[in-house]
Amino acid sequence: QGVGKSSVNKMSDSGSEESVSSSKAEKGLPQIQNGEPQTSPAELTQGCSRWLKASYSFLYVEVSSLVLLFACIALWSPTPWMKYAISVASVSFGICIILQTMEFLQPGFLEKPMVGEHSFEKLCSVFLLLWWIFGTGFITFKGPFIFTSNGWFGAWGGLISSCQWCIGLDFVSYDSQSREVKYLMNLVLLSIVTILASISPLREKTRNFEGAGLSIAAGAITLIVCAYL
């Protein structure tokens, strides 16, 4: 009889628990999950890895947007050019996050045709290329990052990476070069950056602007020598 009573009590307890959980579900209240967790740490790690891989084609655009965004936050001032710079970074980063999430949730989303034969990824890359062309031009020549800084490099990084994404450039040709040729290519890139960074101080005639002229001359000589070699 004792065993029968205990089994009856257990059945009544389980029935009461089911009725309570069903009443909570009807009322929209949160329920306590019993048993093992549905997602393991390994599955979470794999999910994060797949989410990161979804941004493979525009990862550098996303990183450059973050660099420019953090630079604007660090030096924030309510000026029109600063507001424009943070809008450039925010729009670019937001588009990248949306594309990355959609590709993660629906693999192949970026390759779906939207307008004619043009995929969604192609349309977004063209838009961001135009967005960064105007954004980088105004941000680095008008303000707020006229001189070399995190924001300056973030803006130019966004333009270069969006151009690479839109046109579809790869680095196979660079990787196939010899070590000496790679050094020359790196010198060419750094010389161009130096020349671009020295234009504004020379034009504005800021303090010690004579050094900007020397930098432009050094960059130009380096380009000529690299082209000859």
Question: Can you describe this structure?
Answer:
With 229 residues, this protein is an all-alpha fold. The chain has two domains: 50-169; 172-229. The chain is 74% helix and 2% strand. It has nine helices and two strands, in the order H-H-H-H-E-E-H-H-H-H-H. It has helices at 2-27, 41-53, 59-74, 80-105, 120-141, 150-167, 172-175, 179-204, 210-228; strands spanning 113-115, 118-119. Strands 1-2 form a two-stranded antiparallel sheet. Strand 1 (113-115) and strand 2 (118-119) form a beta hairpin. Helix 2 packs across helix 4 (80-105), helix 5 (120-141) runs antiparallel to helix 6 (150-167) and helix 8 (179-204) packs antiparallel against helix 9.
Give a short overview.
The protein has 229 residues and is mainly alpha-helical. Helix content is 74%, strand content 2%.
The global form is globular
Q: Describe the sheet with the most strands.
A: 2 strands, antiparallel
Mean pLDDT comes to: 80
Amount of beta strand: under 5%
Class based on secondary structure composition and strand pairing: mainly alpha
Low-confidence segments, given as residue ranges, are: 7-15
Helical stretch tally: 9
Question: H/E series, N to C?
Answer: HHHHEEHHHHH
Distance between the termini: 100 Å
List the domain count as a whole number.
2
Q: Give the strand order of the largest sheet, numbering strands 1, 2, ... along the chain.
A: 1-2
* Strand segment count: 2
Rg, Cα atoms, Å: 28 Å
Helix content: over 70%
Task: Jot down its keywords.
single chain, 229 residues, mainly alpha, 2 domains, two-stranded antiparallel sheet, 2 strands, transmembrane, membrane, transmembrane helix
